[in-house]
Design a protein that fits this description.
By secondary structure, the protein is an alpha/beta fold. It has a six-stranded mixed beta sheet, with helices on both faces. The chain is built from ten helices and 18 strands.
Length: 420
Amino acid sequence: MFFDEAKIYVKGGDGGNGCVAFRREKYVPFGGPSGGDGGAGGNVYLVASPHRNTLLHFKRRVHFKAGRGQHGRGKNQTGRRGEDVIIEVPLGTVVRDAETGALLADLTEPGQRVCVARGGRGGRGNAAFATSTNQAPRLSEKGEPGEERWLHLELKLIADAGIIGMPNAGKSTLLAAVSAAQPKIADYPFTTLQPNLGVVAVDENTTFVLADLPGLIEGASQGMGLGHEFLRHVERTRLLIHLLNGAAPDPLADYEAINEELALFSPDLASKPQIVVLNKIDLPQAREIWPTVQAEMKRRGVEVMSISAVTGEGVKPLMRRVANLLAELPRPVSPTGVEVFTLPPDEDAFTITREDEHVWRVRGIRIERAARMTNWEQSEAIERFHRILVGTGIAQALEEAGVSEGDTVYIGDIELEWSP
């Protein structure tokens, strides 16, 4: 089965904890602090791989976690960094944040990678806190938790040209006739339930990738039939081969219906170059309607050709024409090819919210990180956190907001009892 959508959970590794230790050696009575820093957590990367062609492997595994950093040790030994996790995805995978829908990456080139969850920083050992006034600190930091998020992965096939048309128009037969692809072929609608790719060799120096895409019906732009599963893959192609069924009651009505669905789904799709091709020209019914189709397309200024995918009539000239048009068309630009600059968030900014009569919540990047990395079992670490509250102005802001002794103050996941 062809899986072209998946939802996965990724988490960067937690940073290792810093260490409280002191140098203990003979003849060195005042060795000083020697606690090492914790190692940073590993990152989670998505990498575009030509060896993957669907997202099926994410049905078996959904959660991916990078390794955590090792804790620091005595003798100023820094913990080892956590191992990264590399997740392979097919070329053409679009990565979005599942919660916000923000585009994170469009992986179209082999080896292209993106970091989707960064590991946390390692906590500092007590050696990092030594000062001239505190030469034997007994505090250290915990490791910072790694980033975590749910991702929505969407696969959009990368093909130069795509064959579109109503169900049973002969799309799979045409692909099988011009390439080594072996799509499922049968005489009933919706035989093709998944996209198929084939490489067409026009001559020794000219090749292109052709996609046979599932058939459209009216209402596809609203998800009817194979709807969005079809239209998603059309977006990647540079040229459309609009295949009409010469044995259908009204091929021109089919032509109108499909173009309307393309326009409803995306104006960009409707504006893609098309070659209209009447298939099954070997049948008397198709030969009879061919002059009408030819005249109507000429009136619209649309290029039209006739073929028989079964007998091969007109197929080679069609493929050569497709190759010539592709040579004239520009390569598509990836959405992530345009670099977007965003202002970095103000880490010192904070907000204070009163959630109940005696319950307060403080939000802010820097203060929440400090709360997560504070070792609440160490008295010196608690005193340091209090100094951070005063130094950042949060303590004063809480008092001005009306906090009272004994009130509960939440900072991230940490619950504190306020004491001025």
